[in-house]
Structure formats: structure tokens, C-alpha cells
Amino acid sequence: MDVCRFVSITSSAAAKLFNIYPQKGRLAVGSDADIVVWNPSASKTISAKTQLAANDFNIFENVEVHGLPVAVICNGRVSYTEGSVYATPSSGRFVPTPPNSVYVYGRVEARDMSLAPQKVSREPYEGETVSTADTTDGKQSCHETPVKEENVLPTQVSDHFHQRPPTRAGGRNMQESSFSLTGEQFDDRKYSRPSSRVLGPPGGRSSGLW
After folding, report:
1. Which range of residues forms the domain containing residue 36?
2. How many domains does the chain have?
3. Is residue 9 part of a domain?
4. Is residue 191 part of a domain?
């Protein structure tokens, strides 16, 4: 990460996310005079005993970090230098953070606009058209799609099926083959009802027990 990228992540981009840029995160006329002097070569070990916070623990205990602030200038005044804080009470002020940051939601709006369907203007088609119906003597007759030979149902049970005798109850022997490599089915010609309503389920109806 180069110096410009480091400044952008720690200062400029953060100010843009909180929607307080260019008041914060920029060195320019009209912006707040907040400056951090950074030493990338300095290092230290984080510890709760040497931290400036008032709590007695630190989740980064004994972690060695590289790169430390040497001095902090807030609103034109030195607030921190050489490990000591020189901020005076009531010297800070409240900085409002307006919602709907353009840095965040402007990209979302631009993405939505780029993904939105766009109207394509075309001239009316005036070329040749093909009709799928013939008109003869004022009557319209549609072309019928020929039926392929392999789709025709067999007129009788093929010899490919095993002809086993029926069971004692008169039903079809379940050991008998019901399919063939030719694609024929044993009961292709058998009529079956599309649906049936069960009036007496196994075990009887249970509505009369309650």
C-alpha cells in the first residue's frame, strides 16, 4: 500500500463514508485543520498498561504494530505529541453526519441505472413474412404436424413382453416384464381414469370418531 492509498483509506474514504467530506479528510481551504504526522518506521507492542484509554484490558494485548502517529493537530492546535495528550476540556465540537452519503448511495444509484432495462428504438419491419396457414375460398386451414412413426402406440402387446399366467386372484403377474427396449409399455393400450375419489379409505373414515 503506497502513501496515497493509506491516506485515502484512513482519512478521505472514511470521511466520505460518514458524509462529512470535504470538511474532514482533506487538506484544503475551508476544511478543518486536522493533521496527523505519521512515522511508518516506528513500532510498539500494544498493552493495557501503556494505553491511553481508561479501561484495563485490550483485545490486541502483546501485538506488535508498525507505523505510529508522532503528532496530532486538531483544529489548528497540537493535541498529541511525544506520547502525551494535550487536549483541553470543551475544545471539541459535534460534527453531524448526514445520512445517504453520495460516496455510497451514489454508486448504488449508478449501478441501478446501468442495470435498468433500456428502450431500443427500431423502425417498423416491412420485410417479407411467412404465414403458417393457407386461405382457400375464405376458409382458413392450418397445416397439421405429421405424426412420427415411433410415436404411434402399438395396437397389441408386443412379443417382447413375457407372457406369464395371471395370479390366483386373476391379476397380472408382477414378475412379468412391463417394459421393452423398443420403448413399448405393457399397458399402453389400457384405459385409465385421470383421477378417482376415495370414499372409503383403508381402515375406515375417522371423522365419525370425534
Report:
1. 31-94
2. 1
3. no
4. no
Q: What is the pTM of this model?
A: 0.46
- What CATH number does the domain containing 68 carry? 2.30.40.10
- Left, alpha or beta for 66 (phi > 0: left; psi -120 to 50: alpha)? beta
User: pLDDT tens per residue, the chain (210 residues)?
Assistant: 888 998 898 899 999 999 999 999 988 898 887 899 999 899 999 999 988 888 899 999 999 999 999 999 988 889 999 888 888 888 888 999 998 888 888 888 888 888 999 888 889 888 888 776 655 555 555 555 554 454 444 444 455 555 677 777 777 677 766 666 666 666 666 666 666 566 666 666 666 555
